[in-house]
Amino acid sequence: RTRRGVLRMKPLAQMDASGVDAVLFDLDDTLSTDGKITAEAYAALESLHQQGLRAVCVTGRPAGWCDHIARMWPVDAVIGENGAFYFWHAQGRLQRRFHDADGVRAEKRTRLSTIARRILAAVPGSALASDQGYRETDLAIDYREDVPPLPLVEAERIARLMKDEGLAAKISSIHVNGWFGDYDKLAMTRLLFRERYALPEDRLRKHVVFVGDSPNDAPMFAYFDRSVGVANVETYGELLAARPKYVTPSPCGRGFAELAATLGRQK
Asked: Cα torsion for 13, 210, 32, 62, to the nearest 10°?
């Protein structure tokens, strides 16, 4: 433990990689590097899938992106918009499971549009995320993807403004996401594995690996016995409500590939 009593992250090499059922992974700055999926990272993802491990993307990205990921990528499912839904592809068709009904989502989107205008006026330099038009459930404010990067203190300010409006708010490596509801990445992960895979809660915690990089991954870091941060997780310091148990030597997609190689050696 550190002097502040926060769990110190251990090197990935110290993680017991045996008996893993599935790998859950964040997308931005975990699988991706500088906004791109490298051949190295994508090959690592495909290798996990080919080894028989369930692969599930768990991201803050929008429904439009998740439609593509579920259809086209070597994954078993994708959880999107920070836990608003999960999608999977089966028997040639996209299947979708939302937290909220259609009418509820429509009503919430109207309210979020008004809140967005107030936040953008209050935080100069921020903008609606370029993928906002593909979202079903949440508000994404860009603070360092397609705008000149704002300091993390501004991301924290955006999150506070969202919370003042009654939203749940999470900071990712590029956006601040806000939504009405008590769900998050972890809640939808637990629902997915209960409904689709009938995996008992104790096995989910102990035999599933999660890898991520930023504050919106904190519930996942806290829950899983084998939670992993790619090296760039160090960027967020005390903004992390919970830290991963292990950390890769390298950042972003290369760190993801290092995790995949570690798991592959146990097969």
From this structure: 180
Q: Which residue has the tokens 């972003």?
A: 252
How far is the C-alpha of 194 from the C-alpha of 164, rounded, in Å?
Answer: 33
CB 263 within 8 Å of CB 209: yes
Nearest-CA neighbor of 181 among 90, 104, 75?
104
Residue 6 has pLDDT above 90, yes or no: no
Per-residue pLDDT reduced to its tens digit, 61-89: 999 999 999 999 999 999 999 999 999 99
Residue 52, token pair as written in the block: 């028989």
Name which of 173, 203, 132 is nearest 35 in CA terms: 173
- The model's pLDDT over 82-96, given as tens digits with 9 standing for 90+, comes to 999 999 999 999 999
Which residue carries 């990921």 as its tokens?
69
Helix axes 252-264, 39-50, angle to 10 degrees: 30
How far, CA to CA in Å, does 230 sit from each of 151, 154, 203? Answer: 21, 23, 23
Angle at CA 66, nearest 5°, toward 60 and 67?
Answer: 160
